[in-house]
Design a protein that fits this description.
The protein is mainly alpha-helical. It is 40% helix and 0% strand. It has helices at 21-40, 60-79.
Length: 101
């Protein structure tokens, strides 16, 4: 059995926003695990939600900034306690529902 230990550092996987195969594979795996959780985990152990809305493209950078701020705050809250006993994944998807041309 292995052990996980927090470093207390905020880690940006892709600071330059340049996609890599490793980052794509990681997100694909997490989406697959989230999909499986729909039928394999009770509602008490998971939270899946979506918002679909129309926006102006000029607001996209602000939306991404707010997502990053929330991720940092949630990470700080979840890592503050010393006696952790579960491993969870929190993922956020923010993407256009329009087909690429």
């Amino acid at each position: 059995a292995g052990y996980l230990r927090t470093t207390g550092q905020w880690l940006l996987i892709s600071p330059s926003e340049i996609p890599s195969e490793c980052v794509r594979n990681f997100h694909s795996q997490m989406i697959t695990k989230a999909h499986r959780s729909i039928t394999s985990q009770s509602i008490e152990k998971r939270n899946l939600s979506s918002l679909v809305f129309a926006i102006h493209e000029e607001d996209i950078p602000k939306a991404k900034e707010l997502i990053t701020e929330f991720n940092k705050k949630l990470s700080q809250l979840m890592t503050a306690r010393e006696d952790k006993n579960k491993v969870y994944c929190f993922s956020t998807q923010f993407f256009s529902l329009e087909e690429e041309q």
